[in-house]
Amino acid sequence: MATIEECRSALDTLSDNMAGANGDVRGAAALDRSLSCRVTDLDITFVGRLQDGRIVVQDTVEGPPPEKAEIRLAMTGDDLVAMVEGELHFAKAWGSGRVRLEAGLRDLMRLRKLL
Prior knowledge:
Elements: H1 4-19, H2 23-29, E1 33-39, E2 44-51, E3 54-62, E4 71-75, H3 77-84, H4 90-95, E5 100-103, H5 105-111
Parallel strand pairs: 1-4
Antiparallel strand pairs: 1-2, 2-3, 4-5
């Protein structure tokens, strides 16, 4: 099972990857939205913002997020690490229910370019 530190590191790596992206991926990541990433098996939530093409983690809280973020992710720590390392494809994990992504319709349409 992935640790809190490994999950935080994976989010930092994902943020770096998004910041270095070009074209459609860069455009899709260039939202300014509140963001939460719930790691279900560790019962923690990383809370922050998707801002300027980066994920900015502002806090780590126990349990579910204290407020409903505009973009919400939920998955196990192992799945988060596997996706960032390229071992698990996001679309496949999302389609099978291993990863939950909730957002407004307009945001979902933009974020699909990241898939």
